[in-house]
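Table 4 source record.
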Amino acid sequence: MAKGDDALARKRNKVRRKRLRSGENAVSARVAAVIASKRRRKSGKRRMCEGMCFSLPTPDDPFNDRHGKKHKGEDEPTGGRDEHKRKKDWNTKKQPAGKAGASAKSKATPEREKDGAEYDRPSKFLVVCLNAIRDAVAAEDGGGGGIHDTGSWGVELWNCCSAASPSDVLDTSGECATREQTAWLVSTACDIVARKEKLGMVVSCPFLLYLVPSQAKAVQVRSVCKPLKSLGIHSVSLHPGASIEHQISGLKSCEPEFLISTPERLLELVSLKAVDISSVSMLVIDGLKCFMDLNAGDKLCSIRDAILSNPQMTVFSDPSDRSVAALATSLFRARRITRLSTNDSVISRSAFVIQNIHVCPSKEQKAPKVKEILEQILNNHARKTTKVLLVAASDHEAKDLSSSLKLQNCTVTDDSHSNSFTICSSVGLMNVLVKDWESMAMTNVEDLDTVLVADLPPSVDEYIEILTMASRHVIAGEVHSIFSNADTSLAKPLSEVLTSCGQVVPEFLKDLESS
C-alpha cells in the first residue's frame, strides 16, 4: 500500500532529526528549535498559539482572533514615530522611481549623521570593556577600583583618539603607563573598532600596536587585554620569552586586533613576513625613556617607518629627562600633539618646556631687551610660523611695547584692535599676541608655542600657571622671562621652580637667593 505524503514527511523529518543529533552536525536544543520554527514558517504550518508571540489582545479583538491584523477600512492608531514611519513609506511608494531614490538617499543621510554624532561621547561598549578589566583585576589581586578614578584622563584620551582628525598624545605622568591608563587606552581602541564595524568599515588587523621595553611589561599589558577576549577582541604578546616558531604559528592561526611586542622581536617577525604592520591604526610606545636606555631609539623609528598608514600615536615618557624630546620629535614628525598627565605636578605639566630667565637692570632697557629676545626666537625657528605670547604688567605697558617694537630687517604689521602684531622677515614669520596680567584669565594659551613674560607677576603662582598651560600642542615649548630689580622677592620661589623642573638656575638668581 502506497504511503501518503504525511507519512513520507514524517519519515524524512525523523531521519533529519537523527542526523542533527549525531556526529559533527549535532546542535543544541535551542538551535534545533530555531531551525524547526524557521522551517514551519517557510512551509506555512505555524501553530495557532504562535501568533500570540507576535501580537496581543486588544479591546476590539479580545480573543486575538485576528492575530494583530487590521480589517480594511479600519483606521490606524495615531502613534508618533510609528505613524510617521508609515506615512513616509506610503509617500515613498507613491513617488516615481527617481523621486523614490532621492527620498531613500535623504533618509540614509540622517542615519549616517546619527552614527557620526555618537562620537561626541564614549559608548556603552567602552564602559563594558572597562568593567570587564576591572572585574578581572579585582578577581586576581583585589584591585581594579582605580580604573574609574582616572576617568577625566581617560575621557581626554578618548577625545584625542576618536576625533574626526585624531590627535597624537604625549603623556608625561611617569616613566611608563599605569595599569589604569592601559585599561583606558585598550578600551578606547575597542570602542573605535566597534564603531567602525557598526558603520560597515573594514578594520585592519592588527589595529593596535603596543610597544613595550621588556617581557615583564608585555605580560602586564597582556593581562589587561585578556578579559577583552570574551568581547571579541583578541590580543597577542610577542617577546623573547617564547620561541619564535611558536609565535609564528600562533600568528598564522589567528588575526589579533591588538599586538603587544618588544621592538626586537617585532622587527624579527616583520623581516620573516610573519606579521604585517603596514596598516596599523593606533601605535602606543610605553616608556620612551626606557627605550632610550636600551638604545632602541633606531628600532622605534624603523617600526614607525614600516607603518605605511598615518596611525594615531600615544607615547608615555618620563618628564624629567629633556633628551627624550628629540626622539619624540622624530617619532611624531612635527605633527600636532596633545599633552596629557594624570597628576598636577609642575614638572609633569611643564615637561620639555625650556625656561629662560633674562636679566634687565632698569625699566628703560626693557623694550630693547624684548626686541633682542624676539629676534632670537625668530632666528631659532627659521622657516616656520611661530606663535608668541607677550605678557606685560598692564594694558598701558602692553600698548607701549607694541608701538616701540621696530625690529631691524623686519616688517611689523600692527593690529591695534586685537593687541597683536605680525613680524615678517626673510627668516620666518612670527605672530605676537600682547596681553596684560588682568586679561590673562580670559586668554587661551594652549595653542601658543612660546611665551615672553616682559613683566613678572607679583606671585610665582601666576608664572607657574602660564608655564603649565602653554605649549599644550607641541613637544618642546619655550618660556622667556625678564627679571628686573623690582622682582627681587621672586628670586627664591623662581629658583625653586627652575630646580624642580631640572632647569639651569642663573647665577644672579643664586646670588639674590643667598643674600
